[in-house]
């Protein structure tokens, strides 16, 4: 087996895990919507929860990560949500467990055929499965990651948005029938909220935020990368740890990136490159676009803004900024924030450069 010179680790999410456990231990009564900025660790936390709950008796966890699935039609949705028992035959026991991560509900060949021929209602099939489990004393749990990927799909003939229908179905399964727990994860809370508004689903869900790692946890991690990541070749001093925190904050993915590069480059070279990349990213996103420039200018000195402070910015533009992972939307507090500390540097650097350019242009005109 390969011995990696740096390994991944899982840093403290005790509080969040306890909140999820608490949700699962109550009788189903609402959808839990897990949101958080790009790469805050939502999927990782869901996998951890999946493993913990699988070890417990009495729960049937169905986990569907839509990022791994090709979804462009209603048939793709059926394939993603339902797996026929025949498709599992022939798989080795080891792969079978893994396979069951892809596809929520097992089907017999007949139901599968009826579903494919559209003579069976997928929502009824799901409900029957929940009822069957509950009768056996098993609590079903559905976890769907990257839920926003269902956007653009419609039910056959009816021209109904699949996503909205699915949400309505989950409301019926949680708040009304108390049959099943449903956890939905997405980094696009703006979009999900639009679905809520459209389908009058408010007051049917709890929102749970997963933010980047906290400062104390990051410092404790980086003070002991030998223990957490099996790094033998170097250690980090307080000054270096502070530079990492100042550059990327608690974004675990970016911290790994820096740790990986430190085998070869200096901390200053790595963080300077990260900042330059982010400036380029902001320059690209705002290129020749006054409205986008104007929007990001609000975040120059402050990484978080209330909706009222962004008056004049169209909702469409805000939605696009969230979709493009520039801004992050928190539906509980109704605030918009920059997606991560490194992007804050990008915005700061971009406006500094633009202003220097304007000054330079003015000066050259003066001296002409
Ligand atoms: N608690 C943690 N401790 C250490 N590393 C973590 C932790 N949580 C996540 N990571 C790392 O951070 C990276 C991003 O995590 P993940 O993909 O789970 O985020 P996400 O919120 O699902 O992202 P996206 O918004 O793209 O869906 C991964 O490389 C993961 O290994
Ligand atoms: Mg994810």
Count, helices? 17
Structural class by SSE content? alpha/beta
What ligand species are in this complex? adenosine-5'-triphosphate, magnesium ion
State the domain count: 2
Distance between termini? 68 Å
Order of helices and strands: HEHEHEHHEHHEHEHEHHHHHHEHEEH
Beta strands, count: 10
Low-pLDDT segments:
88-102
Level-1 CATH class name of the largest domain: Alpha Beta
In which order are the strands of the major sheet placed?
2-5-6-1-7
Helix content: 40-55%
Enter the CATH topology name of the largest domain: Rossmann fold
Globally, the shape reads globular
Strand proportion, as a percent range, falls in: 5-15%
What does the main sheet amount to?
A: 5 strands, parallel
CATH architectural type of the largest domain: 3-Layer(aba) Sandwich
Query: Average pLDDT across residues?
Result: 87
- Using only C-alpha atoms, the radius of gyration works out to 24 Å
The CATH superfamily of the largest domain is P-loop containing nucleotide triphosphate hydrolases
Protein architecture, described:
This protein is an alpha/beta fold and 368 residues long. It contains 17 helices and ten strands. The protein has two domains: 196 residues, 3-Layer(aba) Sandwich (Rossmann fold), CATH 3.40.50.300; 145 residues. Strands 2-5-6-1-7 form a five-stranded parallel beta sheet. A three-stranded antiparallel beta sheet has the order 8-10-9. The structure holds adenosine-5'-triphosphate (ATP) and magnesium ion.
């Amino acid at each position: 087996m390969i011995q990696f010179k740096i390994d991944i680790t899982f840093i403290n999410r005790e509080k969040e895990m306890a909140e999820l456990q608490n949700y699962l231990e109550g009788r189903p009564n609402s959808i839990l919507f897990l949101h958080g900025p790009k790469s805050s660790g939502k999927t990782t936390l869901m996998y951890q929860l999946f493993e913990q709950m699988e070890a417990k008796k009495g729960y049937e966890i169905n986990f569907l990560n839509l990022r791994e699935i090709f979804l462009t039609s209603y048939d793709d949705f059926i394939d993603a949500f339902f797996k026929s028992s025949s498709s599992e035959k022939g798989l080795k026991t080891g792969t079978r467990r893994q396979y069951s991560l892809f596809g929520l509900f097992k089907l017999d060949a007949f139901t599968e055929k009826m579903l494919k021929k559209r003579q069976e209602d997928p929502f009824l099939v799901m409900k029957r499965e929940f009822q069957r489990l509950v009768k056996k004393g098993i609590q079903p749990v559905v976890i769907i990651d990257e839920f926003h990927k269902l956007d653009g799909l419609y039910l056959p003939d009816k021209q109904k948005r699949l996503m909205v229908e699915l949400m309505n179905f989950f409301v019926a399964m949680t708040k009304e029938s108390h049959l099943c727990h449903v956890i939905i994860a997405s980094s696009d809370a703006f979009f999900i909220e639009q679905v809520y508004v459209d389908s009058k689903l408010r007051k049917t869900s709890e929102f749970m935020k997963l933010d980047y790692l906290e400062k104390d946890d990051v410092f404790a991690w980086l003070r002991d990368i030998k223990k957490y990541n099996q790094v033998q070749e170097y250690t980090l001093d307080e000054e270096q740890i502070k530079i990492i925190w100042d550059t990327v904050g608690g974004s675990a993915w970016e911290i790994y990136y820096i740790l990986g590069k430190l085998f070869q480059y200096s901390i200053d070279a790595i963080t300077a490159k990260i900042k330059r990349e982010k400036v380029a990213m902001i320059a690209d996103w705002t290129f020749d676009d006054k409205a986008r420039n104007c929007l990001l200018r609000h975040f120059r000195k402050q990484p978080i803004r209330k909706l009222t402070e962004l008056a004049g910015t169209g909702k469409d533009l805000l939605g696009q900024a969230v979709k493009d992972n520039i801004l992050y939307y928190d539906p509980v507090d109704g605030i918009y924030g920059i997606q991560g500390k490194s992007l804050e540097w990008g915005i700061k650097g971009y406006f500094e450069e633009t202003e220097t350019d304007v000054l330079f242009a003015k000066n050259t005109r003066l001296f002409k």
